[in-house]
Amino acid sequence: xxxxxxxxxxxxxxxxxxxxxxxxxxxxxxxxxxxxxxxxxxxxxxxxxxxxxxxxxxxxxxxxxxxxxxxxxxxxxxxxxxxxxxxxxxxxxxxxxxxxxxxxxxxxxxxxxxxxxxxxxxxxxxxxxxxxxxxxxxxxxxxxxxxxxxxxxxxxxxxxxxxxxxxxxxxxxxxxxxxxxxxxxxxxxxxxxxxxxxxxxxxxxxxxxxxxxxxxxxxxxxxxxxxxxxxxxxxxxxxxxxxxxxxxxxxxxxxx
Length: 256
Fold this sequence. Notes:
Blueprint: H1 2-12, H2 25-50, H3 59-85, H4 90-95, H5 129-151, H6 157-186, H7 191-206, H8 214-222, H9 230-247
Helix pairs in contact: 2-3, 3-6, 5-6, 5-7, 5-9
């Protein structure tokens, strides 16, 4: 216990860990939860987007979508490998999850997770065609960039380095989604339908920043696993995503 307390104090003071050996049990549990949420969300997101590849209006769009699916799956694999260092059965882990499982479009589960894995709630909803998929990836892309900026600072150094490599990839995915919306405007897509997708996905992406109680937020901060609060991240996302939509001729629901 004394050793665990010393490590906890070390982490609270900004210390870093480089291997699983000295990680206290609660720290290990929270770190594994963080990694599982990323892996499950990324694989579920990739599975959903994969189903829309052939709905792309042209070859360039399908190539971009396939690249996004491949890169997301690869990123999930890298984080899953780190989970293996903590004893996770990585082969069984991937095989036992229904990554393509979705609720009905009309479902509303707030920030709650599903029963099958640790994916963020937003990845429980189905995409409806190409335009809807591009809008969702644009909004979630802005969220991912903000979230990864915080994850790059986690106290487990191998994971922090990995998130630092993943961040520019996710930024590129966000930019590809923005280019995709622009392209759909040029191709004469129905602006009203695009706006309906914005209205649908906006609140579902927004809840991705919530869920942690003040007590748990304090624990994660003490462990060096979280720095920005969900409220601060949500405020930043609301500003940046609204500005991006405005530049694309669309409107954030809060300012509609």
